[in-house]
Amino acid sequence: MNDHQHASEKHERHGNALQRLRARLRVLYHGHSREALRFQFAVLIVDLAIIAFFIATPLLRGEPAFLWFDYSVAALLALDLTARALATSDLMRWARQLPVIIDVFILLTLLMPTWLVNLGFLRILRLWTISRTGFIWRPLRKRNLSHLREPIQAVINLLVFLFVVTGFVYTFFARRDNSIEGYIDALYFTVATVTTTGFGDITLPGTWGKLTSIVVMIVGISLFVRLAQSIFRPNKVRFPCPQCGLQRHDQDAVHCKACGYLLNIPDDTD
């Protein structure tokens, strides 16, 4: 009986410790205190360093220390995913989110760099996944700069697309065509194609090369249009109208332009 009580108390202590850890992580990842904001800023800096590593990976792959860096980044990403999982209140819902699924896939490419070497260019999607987390936008809200979120997100989407395409072209077309000899050539081709400049000095060979160029041009133009819209159209806030569902309104709107419903848009100046 005493052994059973001792085991039960030990299990309870471990359970309480886990609950305290989860509550602590929840505050750090989702809180608004100075300590939480400092933690979130530190996480963002680490994430940006990881993304810089992903961009430089094609140039570093031949270095002796590459695998050491690769597995170190894998450990950091695994630690971040574990902490986020503990911080969430609904694990199954969190695990089904697209940014989480992408991060797990990126982790697999880091843990198996030899087997998944041809998919390593997708690691830059980490930049997109961190842009979907709310805490990186909180500094904008605190400084009443929420209107900058949409153009910044559009820039991030464009950058992610550029580097994904560059990695794809470098992985599957470099050394098969004399015009693409390295990563910079692949980046040059991507930018020239997306902007429809089309200098013609670097082209992708064969039918698949032509199809790739077509997709890059179509998607690239769409992203540029989206970026231009977010920069030049009047600043609006995203606040769904309870009556008609209109999503965007002027920052000082009192009534919905579509249906005239009386709005109560929160003020971000505090």
TrEMBL record:
<dbReference type="InterPro" id="IPR003938">
    <property type="entry name" value="K_chnl_volt-dep_EAG/ELK/ERG"/>
</dbReference>
<dbReference type="GO" id="GO:0008076">
    <property type="term" value="C:voltage-gated potassium channel complex"/>
</dbReference>
<keyword id="KW-0407">Ion channel</keyword>
<dbReference type="GO" id="GO:0005249">
    <property type="term" value="F:voltage-gated potassium channel activity"/>
</dbReference>
<keyword id="KW-0813">Transport</keyword>
<dbReference type="Pfam" id="PF07885">
    <property type="entry name" value="Ion_trans_2"/>
</dbReference>
<feature type="transmembrane region" description="Helical">
    <location>
        <begin position="152"/>
        <end position="174"/>
    </location>
</feature>
<feature type="transmembrane region" description="Helical">
    <location>
        <begin position="211"/>
        <end position="228"/>
    </location>
</feature>
<dbReference type="GO" id="GO:0001508">
    <property type="term" value="P:action potential"/>
</dbReference>
<keyword id="KW-0406">Ion transport</keyword>
<feature type="domain" description="Potassium channel">
    <location>
        <begin position="160"/>
        <end position="231"/>
    </location>
</feature>
<keyword id="KW-0812">Transmembrane</keyword>
<keyword id="KW-1133">Transmembrane helix</keyword>
<keyword id="KW-0472">Membrane</keyword>
<dbReference type="InterPro" id="IPR028325">
    <property type="entry name" value="VG_K_chnl"/>
</dbReference>
<protein>
    <submittedName>
        <fullName>Ion transporter</fullName>
    </submittedName>
</protein>
<feature type="transmembrane region" description="Helical">
    <location>
        <begin position="98"/>
        <end position="117"/>
    </location>
</feature>
<feature type="transmembrane region" description="Helical">
    <location>
        <begin position="41"/>
        <end position="60"/>
    </location>
</feature>
<dbReference type="InterPro" id="IPR013099">
    <property type="entry name" value="K_chnl_dom"/>
</dbReference>
